[in-house]
Amino acid sequence: MKYKALTGLILVGLVLLGGCAKNQQTFTQTFAVAPGKLTEVKKEVQPKLDVYVPLRDQYAASKHAKALEDLNKSDHAQDYCYNCHSSEYRLAPQDAKPNVKQLSTSITCIVCHDLDNSDFRLRTTPLETCTNCHTAAVEIKPGIAVQHPQKEMLMGKGALEVPEMPSNKYKTGLTCIECHMPNQSHTFEALTPQKALDQKVGSTCMMCHTKLTQKEFADKVAELQNDIDSNTKQLKKSLEELKVTLDTAKSAGRDVSEAQKLYDVAVTNESFVENDGSKGIHNFEYSKATLDVVQKKITATMQALK
After folding, report:
1. Which of 7, 8, 76, 174 is most buried, taking the most CB atoms under 10 A from its CB?
2. Which among 164, 162, 136, 168 has a CA at the least distance from the CA of 292?
3. CA distances from 125 to 26, 113, 146, 152 (A)
């Protein structure tokens, strides 16, 4: 009897292993790419890293864990900033906010999750949960430096003199979590196509972008990001040089009001793209259009100063 039982267990194990091996080769996933339209995507899946990292360690490696520390190191912190950098401050009643110098807790689970429920459900929808903080949160006016406008970039609005241009991700219903929380990872580090290749895992992007291989797509995304990044840096350098010219003209008593208006639009739009932090990946088309306005305003400012 013992031998029969052992033989049965071995046979079950072989069946399970065979099924796993088969599932490891390919999978079929249905993914909504537009309202009312479905596409069935079949692709090869690379083996995932067999590493388990406890949630507490994932969180400890995230920027959320260091949000309060990072804000305290900055030179531009305002009291309202602590709403998104400290769970103590955020959850305190509006008329009883603690002294910011006494805060000791960064962004923790309770900011996003309702811990009174056993299923740890989110307090709001996934998109709202992230964009409550990852947003410019102020009226974007010429001359200001826009901080963390990830919501605006994804939705394709907010940049000055640029028509609204929602990203395809936003239009198809994707939120932040598909890229920033692969396998529900709480490090919140985006799994870019190149990182997916490096880690030998399937890329979320490939569920929609099916015309290229994962390597081809990773190379294309890297090329687009490099273009946005290098253009942003070059325009920022041009703005710094232009500011010297503008200040010199002011010191000489010239009326530079028109040039200043043009310059202010350029500065704000450059900061919009730079401080989104994604190097265009949140919305390549809108990033490029915004930088195009920056270039035009720089040229117009130089003309106005002649």
Report:
1. 174
2. 162
3. 32, 11, 25, 17
Q: What is the mean pLDDT of each run of 10 residues along the chain (306 residues)?
A: 40 36 30 33 37 82 94 89 95 94 94 83 92 94 96 98 96 90 86 87 81 91 96 98 97 97 98 97 97 98 96
Q: What's the predicted TM-score (pTM) here?
A: 0.80
DSSP string of 44-106, one letter each residue: E-PPPP-----HHHHHHTSSGGGHHHHHHH-SS--GGGGGGT-HHHHHS-TT-PPPGGG----
Helix (H, G, I), strand (E, B) or coil at 257: helix
Instruction: Tell which residue, 268, 247, 10, has the closest CA to residue 139.
Output: 268
CA 275 to chain centre: 10
Amino acid at residue number 111: V
| HSE (side-chain half, CA atoms, 13 Å) at 206 | 24
